[in-house]
Amino acid sequence: MHIELVIAKLVTVGLGLLITFQAYKGYRAYGNEPMLYLAIGFLFISVGAVIEGVLFDVVGLSIFLAGTIQTTLVGFGMIVILYSLYGRMPTSASGGNDG
């Protein structure tokens, strides 16, 4: 196993988890539901960043199956992030320009 690759993967996961944590804090502080979906999306992408190597080297899955699982997790994470950006947002009960 190449130590440089392991370090790069750990840095990638660390950054992804930091983004996940900050988005979740934003959700908790302001009740902004899209921030929750953003956090979930980045969590899936962060796990997907390292799961292929773990499944291949540790679990012993084929590189094809490990890559398929990794790609599925990252793709699902991107779909959740897209939902956080374009999904249906609740309307405000006390709108500013209603009258």
Can you tag this structure with a few keywords?
single chain, mainly alpha, 99 residues
State the low-pLDDT regions, or none.
none
Largest sheet: none
Number of strands: 0
- What is the percentage of strand-forming residues? under 5%
Question: How is this structure best described in words?
Answer:
With about 100 residues, the protein is mainly α. The protein has one domain (about 5-85). It is about 80% helix and about 0% strand. The protein contains three helices and no strands. The longest helix is centred in the N-terminal third of the chain and has 28 residues, at about 5-30. It is elongated and about 45 Å long.
What is the strand and helix layout of this fold?
Blueprint: H1 3-30, H2 33-59, H3 63-86
What's a concise summary of this model?
The chain is mainly α. The chain has one domain. The chain contains three helices and no strands.
